[in-house]
Amino acid sequence: MKKYIKILALSSLFVLGACSDDFLDTESSTNKDESNFYKTPNDAYEGLIAVYDVLQREAYGGPLLISEQASDDCFGGYGTADAQADIEWDRFLYVSNKDMNSDVWKFAYLGIYRANILLENLDKVNWGANTALKTRYEAEARFLRAHFHFTAAKMFGDIVPLDHTVTTSEFQLPRQAPEVTYALIASDLKFAADNLGPENYSQAGNANYGRITKWAAEAYLARTFLFYTDYYEKPDLAGVVTKAQATTYINDAVSNSGHGLVADFANLWLAASFDKFAGEDNTEMVWAVRFNGSGKGDWGLNEGNRFQVNIAPRGGSIGPYATGWGGATVNPELYNDYATGDTRRDATIISYNTEEYKGQPLNFDPQARDQRQYTGYSWKKYCPITNEAGTAVVEANGGNFQIDNYQDYAVIRFADVLLMAAELNLDTNAALAIDDFNRVRDRAFKDTAHRATTLDKIAIMEERRFELALEGQRYFDLIRQGMDVAKEAIDNTTGTEFNVTFRTETLGWFPLPQSQIVLSNGTIKQNPGWN
Hints:
mainly alpha; two-stranded antiparallel sheet; 4% strand
């Protein structure tokens, strides 16, 4: 059976099982399949680009938005008549849409599938003397395969790890124990960290910006190590990477990557800085998913950042902030918990009750704008902006405000690298941990008066909350500390509209898409707490 390069219809592991052999064996309608492709390094490059392309399939937020709605920092939001699933992510319910997480599952396995296709065909390419290029492509593909596995594993717990393209006899594979999945993730990230060169692509105009680097692999390995060892209470990363090794990797990224902190936190975010924006190719971006507005309203493309419209102000532009759907309204507790003088608060969150624009208050009317779960606060990070005429910049450039926003999604910033280094060094080199931690504090407060002199894990987790707020890390930081910690943070009783009860019986995992359970023919069971 041929595996065709065009695989858009085969985007989910168990969707494959619904296709007949006759359909799969139909002759290709293009001139590229495995019998005549993967001959030259350029063919391999095209295959690698196809793996990267899946990163742009965040659809309307994916794990980033879902996890923020589920965390203590956001509610569901959107309009009063909008889909109930957004409230259900917030309230740990599973009523209106049993397939509410299907895109997360589907795109994770699409990325895994494409990575495996490339990896299985690298030996068919005539590399000539350029074997280093083959190693580089393998390292990038394995990093991406690890990323897609981790995306699914941190959302759903036990998943189906795949180090190869499945055959017809494997369409209904069972989920595996976490150590099996994380051993594959760790091996892939270790290969990438050990085999990629020391390049740093965060220089202005670098054509490779957005590609995987050694430093991204080292940082990502630390992230998976911390999640796995905390959540599953293990001493190492699935027997593949020890704590000492993870610490060595993250310290290398801190000391030798060439990455650093942008001087002003606000300048990382377009809506917080405007003409002072540091640019997406700034030194702090260790790895980011690239977007652009070149689609110009073409819904068939996935070039633009379709997530941004979700969190922008509902009901029309207001001040410098462009219009959107008002999703994931920010919990006032997050805004109020920032310390006096912390510059990150006003760079992270729009405060409709206190902000002014051109000398006038923003005056957001939630009833007129049909805003559900209005809190007075919404996202400034990733919010699209207007021009001086009040038109969304993306529309002024000929794009569609729903699908053509263009800000990159920062997966790993150097500030996160410093905080992970502080966490990993805490027990063995407290002085180094404090130094890394204080670099983040110094930038946040623009002084040295707020430095820590002692440090513990609780302080690091709190600092992560303020530094990485609304970047998709908070929920996973909570559940890796334990169900009791997550429940204490997430439970909310401030009024009927905002009542949230974190259900510890879910173990922190989200519900599997019901369609995948059905297609598995009983091989896969629903996660605990979601039946």
